[in-house]
Amino acid sequence: MGALKTNFNRVLKALEDQKKEVERKAAELQAEVATRLLELLIFRTPVKTGELAGGWTALGGVTGRLNKDRSMPVGERSAIISQSKRGVGINIDNAVEYVKVLNYGLNGFEPRHFVELAIAQLLREYANSGIVININ
User: What global pTM score does this model have?
Assistant: First the structure.
């Protein structure tokens, strides 16, 4: 009976370890998708002074800067991954007060609807991945 209990405990431990690994991978994947959306938003944001493009943040602190190849710097990417948790959404925001005016094209500055264009591109990139992306 003792050997059966020991084997059962090993199986339980292995399942717990697998669960933790799946949760870690899910959080990394979520952070990868959020990072890619942040990259697309920054890239598609019209730039006159740079304030709006630099105003994008994720998780309330990771700032919007891109490398010359339009990728997120490793430090920012790592910060998003380390702060993300499975099942908890990653908030991407821009606190610059005129972001909506510019996005809806009310001032005549192009491109209009750059936020929607970034989201559409993200959805196209992940269309065949099996990943479900919820944008609110």
Answer: 0.75
